[in-house]
Design brief:
By secondary structure, this protein is an alpha/beta fold. 48% of the residues lie in helices and 16% in strands. The chain has a seven-stranded parallel sheet, with helices on both faces. It has a seven-stranded parallel sheet with strand order 10-11-9-8-12-13-14, with helices on both faces. Helix 7 links the parallel strand 4 and strand 5. It is globular. The chain starts with a helix and ends with a helix.
Length: 413
């Protein structure tokens, strides 16, 4: 623990230095200034006193994974108080006003004094962590105080630090959870072979969430007008390498199939990322927030956030970004509409990507030609496209129910 605590101290120093020139680090630091005073005042102002379930998410992606459980708990028991915390600004800044949480805070850094003060103020009756985030001091203190603690939608792989000689302290921390709800059989077998018994396969709550979203029939007038009667490719959460491949493949397709259009939504929405896409596209594009060229545009650039999960419904084929960076983004949002989906090579830590590839209902691409071939097959072969969509629908339907299973056990304990 000495080395772990020292590492946290170094992290604290580094992020404070980074906050002088990095906006995200600046928000991380500013959000934790006088954090305990802010927490106390917020709880007092909102008359939140006792009966609190504490839910923690690393960032926005983990929040979406835990969201179905949070909302199911709240809908089943409206009087239940929920305090939601985030480690990252990208989660907190977007969801700080989330209506199903009674209060939303940054998580104080995992040092012993912070942990003791945070738990003394919140006094949670249960704690729920979503997928990742293994803060040793928090987990140890929750165990010491006999506060039931759960990990939801977790996955584990043999190459993780838990299973290395230097990761024993993190593996032992897994024993502090009352129950770990796992996504898949491979994770279960891996932990079971290491002697863990506080584990159960429950599935991935994101399936419930994305299918729920897909049933919401919100029309997007600008998107609908842009699409008209054309075939549509949607590229979501893209990074520069993704954009190079997508736009090159699209231009090649466009020369062969004139009734094709592209909607592209970069992962980072800022002036730099949008400008880079504009340069790659060249002419005949429109911005979503300034659609004055919409009638003659072949490419629509989504230069705002919060819409992507609804945009996928307009696609005939999709490409999900991130596979040439740290890892692919959420492919389930597209698959929820039964749309054939491709992604880059860094996918192996994602259960749903591996499963859909094994079932031949998604496609990994290595270059722009791979992407061109994938798109063309979907666009030009109606029978193949419909058959693939039917198989995707069957897969998605088979994966639902994790939320109901998890919440039933959480509320019964």
């Amino acid at each position: 623990m000495l080395f772990y605590n020292f590492t946290l101290f170094i992290y604290w120093l580094v992020i404070h230095v980074a906050s002088l020139f990095n906006d995200k680090a600046k928000k991380w630091v500013a959000g934790r200034k006088d954090i305990f005073t802010y927490i106390k005042k917020t709880l007092q102002d909102k008359h939140i006193n006792g009966n609190i379930i504490w839910v923690h998410c690393a960032s926005l992606g983990e929040f979406e994974q835990g969201r179905p459980a949070i909302e199911t708990i709240k809908k089943n028991n409206p009087q239940q108080k929920i305090v939601l915390t985030f480690f990252s600004p990208s989660g907190y800044e977007i969801r700080k006003d989330y209506k199903f949480a009674d209060a939303v805070f940054y998580l104080p850094l995992d040092i012993k004094s912070n942990v003791n003060e945070f738990l003394a103020i919140i006094k949670p009756i249960k704690a729920i962590f979503i997928k990742y985030e293994f803060w040793l001091n928090y987990l140890n203190e929750l165990k010491h105080k006999n506060i039931p603690t759960y990990l939801i939608s977790a996955t584990f792989r043999p190459n993780q630090h838990f299973f290395k000689w230097y990761g024993l302290i993190f593996f032992n921390a897994l024993k502090n959870y009352t129950k770990i709800f796992l996504q898949d059989e491979n994770s279960y077998q891996l932990l079971n072979q290491q002697g863990l018994t506080n584990i159960e396969i429950a599935g991935d709550t994101r399936f419930d969430r994305v299918l729920e979203i897909s049933q919401i029939k919100n029309e997007l007038p600008i998107i609908k007008k842009f699409c008209s009667s054309n075939k549509i490719i949607v590229a979501g959460s893209t990074w520069p390498k993704d954009e190079e491949f997508v736009i090159a493949a699209f231009k090649k397709l466009k020369s062969k199939y004139p009734n094709i259009k592209l909607i592209i939504a970069p992962h980072e929405v800022n002036e730099t990322s949008v400008s880079a896409i504009e340069k790659l596209v060249g002419t005949n594009y429109s911005l979503y927030t300034n659609p004055k060229h919409l009638d003659r545009a072949d490419v629509l650039i989504i230069d705002t956030i919060g819409m992507l999960s609804q945009i996928y419904r307009y696609g005939n084929a999709t490409y999900i970004g991130g596979g040439f960076n740290d890892g692919i983004h959420n492919i389930l949002e597209a698959l929820a509409y039964n749309i054939p989906t491709a992604f880059g090579t860094n996918y192996k830590k994602f259960v749903e990507a591996n499963e859909t590839l094994e079932l031949h209902i998604s496609k990994v691409i290595y270059n722009e030609n791979d992407l061109f071939i994938f798109f063309e097959k979907i666009i030009s072969n109606k029978d193949y496209s419909e058959q693939l969509s039917s198989q995707i629908k069957k897969y998605m339907g088979s994966k639902t129910g994790a939320t109901k299973k998890i919440v039933a056990e959480l509320l019964s304990i």
